[in-house]
Amino acid sequence: MITYNDTDLILAPCAGYTDAGMRTLCTRYGAGLCFTEMVSAKGLLYNNANTEALLTLSPEEKNTGVQLFGSEPDILAAAIQDERLKKFPVIDINMGCPVPKIVTNGEGSALMKDPDRIFRIVKAAKEAAGDRLLTVKMRAGFYSGYENAPECAAASEEAGADMVTVHGRTRDMYYSGKVDYGIIGKVKQAVKIPVCGNGDVIDRESYLKMKETTGVDYVSIARGAFGRPYVFAAIRGEEYDFNVKQAILEHISLLSFLPERTVANCMKKQIAFYIKGRRGHKEIKEAVFRASDMKELISVIDLIDF
Ligand SMILES: Cc1cc2nc3c(=O)[nH]c(=O)nc-3n(C[C@H](O)[C@H](O)[C@H](O)COP(=O)(O)O)c2cc1C
Fold first, then answer.
1. Which of 107, 184, 223, 259 gives the lowest tally of CB atoms within 10 Å of its CB?
2. What is the rounded distance in angstroms from the CA atom of residue 194 to the CA atom of residue 187?
């Protein structure tokens, strides 16, 4: 089993969100595996200042994988062999990011235009990973009308990947339009390694729909966990307590290894999700975004009474 906690539920990698705080809270509510935000393989090798923070784990995290992005097999392999990645039991390669800055470098979802390159990347990455698991995360395809995820997944499997995640949208769809369950099902048919289905899972009903219509082995959740770490317990059918203010304060304390200013900036977006749909959320959100430092932010959080 790739996941821990005896579950098929995974927290998907999300830049700007799946920090050590979110991952730890999701794990407490029963996520079986979590992923870091995507980390540049090149940035890691060149000791980019931001990389260190992205790789920091909370003391509770035993079930977190690191996601790397890059396009060159030897650079990805060198990053995987870096000492700082040795603590991660799973290494994931990003083949789904749709952002122009990444795609124009031939990284993220652009890799899906070249299954031969996918093969070379996964082969080099798997060799470098040694005993660690090597997974890939892709989309339905790069272009709508040319959904080649089954071919890309087969190339990954042949090169040694241990699991493939498919977000059922093409690159040109970004995050809109309907998830294509059919293509996720085709990937499941195309490979023998475990497949993780991803896209629009937000509760038990959508989780069951993903599992039953595609036959996937695992399900990963991204936006459905923003401000809702309890989504994992809810899907598992377990009872849970959740208090927004307590969760926000806990999230902040789990990020205490970061400079206060960074924590305040990271938390503003997270808080907007924690309070979404709750009484007075508009006013609280405005006050949160106006806060100029951590002290001010805490005084706004203090006013939350749910
Ligand atoms: C703000 C944001 C950041 C994301 N960052 C990443 C990332 O770093 N790596 C990645 O593979 N996918 C990333 N994704 C995509 C998600 O992992 C996921 O595939 C997508 O949101 C669909 O799943 P969902 O419907 O559960 O959100 C990101 C998505 C969002 C909304």
1. 259
2. 10
Same domain, yes or no, for 228 and 272? no
Range with lowest mean pLDDT among 48-62, 110-124, 130-144 = 48-62
Token pair in block for residue 18: 């799946």
pLDDT at 266 > cutoff 90: yes
Atom of ligand 1 nearest to the CA of 96: 11
Q: What mean pLDDT is predicted for residues 87-114?
A: 98
Question: Measured between alpha carbons, how far is 213 from 201 in angstroms, rounded to an integer?
Answer: 13
For 74, 91, 96, 119, 223, the CA distances from 122, given in Å and listed in that order, are 11, 11, 15, 5, 27
Report residue 186: phi and psi, to 5°: -65, -35
Number of domains in the chain: 2
Domain range spanning residue 157? 9-236
Q: What is the pLDDT of residue 1?
A: 81
157 shares its domain with 267? no
- Dihedral of alpha carbons 190, 192, 198, 203, sign: positive
Q: Residues with beta carbon inside 6 Å of ligand 1?
A: 12-17, 37-38, 67, 94, 96-97, 137, 167, 175, 198-201, 221-224
